Amino acid sequence: MLRLLLPPNLPDAAIRDAISIKVELDLKATPRPALFAGLAILQTLCGGAATPPPFIQVSREQLRQLVNSLPGQPVFGWLREPDKNILWIGPRLRGVSEFLAADKPVSSADPVRAPARRALPNSSSYHRGASADEPTTPMVVDGSEHFLAISLPSREHSGYAAALELVKTNSFTLEPANRKWWLRDRHKVLNFLATHRGALETEYFAEFTGNFEKNTANFAKAEISCEITAAGADYALTLGLDAGKVAADQLRNAVATNRGYVEDNGKIYLLAPDTLEKLTRAQRILAGGGAAPLSARRTHQISSARISEVDELITELAPDFRPPASWRRRAEALKNLAKLEPAPLPDDFAAVLRPYQQLGVAWLWHLHRHRLGGILADEMGLGKTAQAIALLSAIHLKPQAAPSLVICPASLVENWRRETARFAPSLRVFIHHGAKRLARTMDATAHDIIITSYGTASRDRELFAELDLACLIADEAQHVKNRRSQNAKALRSLRAHARFFLTGTPLENSIDDLRSLFETLLPGMVEKLPTGLKADERSFQEERLRIQTAPYILRRTKLAVAPELPEKIEQVIYCEPSARQSALYKEFQLASEAQLDELAGKGASQNAVRMATLTQLLRLRQICCDPRLVAPTATADDSSKLEAFRELLAEGIDDGHRMLVFSQFTSLLAHLREELEEQGIVHCYLDGSMSAKARQAEVDRFNDSDDVPVFLISLKAGGTGLNLTGADTVVHFDPWWNPAVEAQATDRAHRIGQTRVVTSYKLICSGTVEEKVMALQETKRALLADVFEASDAANAKLELSDLQALLRD
Q: Do 140 and 210 touch, CB atoms closer than 8 A?
């Protein structure tokens, strides 16, 4: 967030005690503590100004103090190579510190402030010469609308090279007699000033003669105009260029012909390219993202769901514009959650909610009141269910005819019933599942909350579609990320005052998951992507989608809001394959490569190759876990992971720990059950084939009895919707592509209510595909790091090339 660029003539400038430094400071970023001392000195050098000027001039002693305040910090660079850091050698900055020695004569001058731009004497031939006290001279601009005469700064000036490049690339010619660079074409002069007038002031620190100021008094900069009017529940937003009384067709013609100015009644309006670019981008975004020419004035219909996104856009375009009060209230509430009104909750319910949960409920309540929706994406274990039930309690605090509907995986229906009875016992709850289901739509009005599963909701779509729902809540909303699935279609057919999704992983495969979720959550807010997009167009659309959806996603991490939660320790245990395991792995790997080469030689489709690749990878991963999964003649002793698990198991039980063991393979869990039974270890078991009733019975058994030390769980069946804080050890027998899924599984134990440190072990067969999977997890995490934190960003889609790379040595 801080860059200090030093001039290439530092040795000479240090002798003269006149060192020009370019300052780059991002005031929006939170500074690292290591920069505080340097920032304090920098502020002193700038006369206490909160925002430093782009260039400052300092003495040798002042630069020495600045360098000494930032030891080892990668903030210094050379002006000619701004992206490269100057190397620190111990406490010394190479190529800099040697010229700042304290034993040399130093200036006693006060910190030098960047001079304010001022008009020079009224003379077109004025040129300020150098003096002993001021050895460098600035750029000087003289002229009118018909010509420009620019005197470059002295060669010793740090900005000389950039200034020379500027005039050379803009058709200026040097007149040797007076060493000025001239431009004598009115059209070129006006285009140059439209493009570079701002940069001359803020980047080149040019000084303008009084003659120039007088001759250009009739110049003005065309600004972006903005108007907002209410249009029912939505708004009409008009954006355009404000250039006096210049007609719209004249502005359009100037833009179309790349003319940087328009004229009206003796007034010249400069059309700055950065202003036109901002307006073009804004109109493109408001029009849905398609490539469209700039319009001098255009009106857009803005739905209430887009207010937050568009408000950010308007703030950038027209900072002084004041939108209507109703617009401001909606926009500001989502920008500053602290200003949200609390939801009307019963006192006993509000008392059990943590502060961050109360804030989450206020966020949900605000969106519900404005007929919007959102994704509560808090990290696993922070109580998304409790916050959702609080919203339902607020909605149904007063009796009303419209019920609310909760849709969740079948395995969580009973959990929702229990949690609702616990937090809001006064709510009338009906479980629409199995044989006990509503027969008629009118029967729904007798209940406040109806809880059903995704499968049942799809089958009874026509019944639910006739209801006017007060609220729709979809738990584990990754079940509707496929817009073509029956689950997604069923949700889109429902009518609700507001819709909310609960999920710790709003991104499971790619950022397109967000588009699918919001097509169901806030219909019409995001547009469908056109086909055949180029890479830059797709990047634009993805960035726009991130900006659009961000105000409607609330995510908090345990580290941020529950610092009292015990530590989570993650440890990788590398298992050296046994001889039999290693030989079997190599045999299958060679056979896999041969099969894929054969498919490629026969011209098989990419989908066929992908499926074959996945099958081969499955076999290799199973060998890593236990060779018995692919070779019936193998024995338990051939699995190095099983041996490592035995050690973890024995040590854990001896120390009084309770353990959750996750695997993607139910066949592996079967072997582990046999192992536990042979050792006489009591255990619980859960996989996807079990009924919701049997599932809940196993969960209750583990939670209610400390005598059960081990719970074997299928990763997909038990990775979500369970509270197992009785365990303090988690074992992942095999890694999954998506580390967020593993994190969710670990968070069955590491969640609110846990009082002990949770240790998570990941068993990895060294030198195999499993090590590559771990590396791939990190790569995929980086792909979406700008959308969510690392745990969510890891969920990028696996390409065929990713999969094939895993098969190779």
A: no
